[in-house]
Amino acid sequence: MIIDARGLRKTYRPRGRRGAAPVEAVRGVDLQVAAGEIVGVLGPNGAGKTTTIRMLATLVAPTGGTATVAGHDLLTSPEQVRRRIGYVGQAGGVDENNTARANLRLAARVDGLTAAEAAARTEELLAAFDLTGPADRPARTLSGGQKRRVAIALGLVHRPPLLFLDEPTTGLDPQNRANLWEQIKTLRDGGTSVLLSTHYLDEADALCDRLVIVDHGVVVAAGTPAELKREVAGDVVSLRVPGTDEAARVLDGLPYTREVRADRGLLRVYLDDGERALPHLLAALAGQGLALESVALDRATLDDVFLHKTGRSLRDAA
Ligand SMILES: Nc1ncnc2c1ncn2[C@@H]1O[C@H](COP(=O)(O)OP(=O)(O)OP(=O)(O)O)[C@@H](O)[C@H]1O
User: Is pLDDT at 44 greater than 90 in this prediction?
Assistant: First the structure.
């Protein structure tokens, strides 16, 4: 395991504000990352994702818990950990007035490389992140996607085996997000382990090998995206019916229904084989004189997992 964290906790105690209550941002998180994996911490705003990542990256001192990160104890050997990790925060670490090339060369020199080594590493990273073209423009003139790629390249200058990315695609358009996913996968395929945070369901599903879903500072579910969705149920039938309570009661009583949930006037019925069950569902409602307004059959999504575990949709919570 390149990360093995047990019972991580962080309580912020606001200083200087009399009477301000402490904030329990992270309340006992267990988290493992195997070498060569992309693991995502998924959760709504304020769930404790940034705090968890910053603790593991030695930037915030935990209030409790233990962790081994990149082979070293987080609490007793933070310097050793720091040498073996890369961290890209939400703000990135790019000097806007300098070019991408100068940003990277400086980082490489600070890291102890000779001028020639720094130049070589810079060209390697510019090529890997498709930045050779705009490499000599001031970073402030780069697009959001390009700037984000410079920030990630900066985190990789010293070839860390483990990279932390805090919400790497927030604010990017769909095309740039998809490009960045490919580059993160390429890093993983080259042997770099990645722990990232996200509140995007599609990103968690498409990019991450494994997920830790957090809410209010605790882990509510963990597993591969496929495992998590399977746990909830294979299929979900969404129905709009006047008389939601009555319909829910009828559907809940059917033998193949695993669970029924009401979500903003929409009934979501979880079951294993939606195609086969759907006609029976509709017949049962018609038998009770309940007229349908709409019906849709889908595979369960990660949002269904979140809804199942927390009672609310991540779309509302985020
Ligand atoms: N330095 C701080 N002092 C006090 N409270 C803090 C501090 N940093 C974070 N918090 C609080 O801790 C909780 C968790 O915040 P955190 O940033 O870890 O969540 P998050 O899941 O990363 O959210 P976001 O997606 O908005 O970044 C929030 O209630 C936040 O307001």
Answer: yes
Q: Are 41 and 207 in contact (CB under 8 A)?
A: no
Residue 52 CA, ligand 1 centroid: distance in Å: 10
Q: Compute the radius of gyration of the chain from its Cα atoms.
A: 23
**Given the structure tokens 């018609």, which residue do they identify?**
286
Asked if residue 3 has pLDDT above 80, the reply is: yes
Alpha carbons 295 and 310: distance in angstroms, whole number: 24
Q: Is 49 in the pocket of ligand 1 (CB under 6 A)?
A: yes
Q: Which structural domains are found in the chain, ordered by start?
A: 3-224 (3.40.50.300), 234-299 (3.30.70.260)
CA–CA distance, 149 with 129 (Å, rounded to integer): 6
- Spatial neighbors of 315 by CB under 8 A, at least 6 apart, are 201, 303
Which of the residue ranges 70-79, 86-95, 257-266 would you say has the lowest mean pLDDT?
257-266
- 89 pocket-lining for ligand 1 (C-beta < 6 Å): no
Tell whether ligand 1 has an atom less than 6 A from the beta carbon of residue 214. Answer: no
The DSSP symbol for 275 reads: H
Secondary structure in 3-state letters for 17-69: CCCCCCEEEEEEEEEEECCCCEEEEECCCCCCHHHHHHHHCCCCCCCEEEEEE
3-class DSSP state of 165 = strand
pLDDT of residue 90: 87
Distance of CA 284 to the CA centre of its chain: 40
- Closest C-alpha residue for ligand 1 atom 18: 48
pLDDT at residue 318 greater than cutoff 70: no
Are residues 212 and 31 in contact, defined by beta-carbon separation less than 8 angstroms?
yes
**Atom of ligand 1 at shortest range from CA of 41:** 21
Can you tell me the distance from the alpha carbon of 309 to that of 317, in angstroms, rounded to the nearest whole number?
A: 13
Identify the residue whose tokens are 């059917």. 254
pTM: 0.89
Secondary structure (3-state) at 230: helix
Retrieve residue 247's tokens.
């319909």
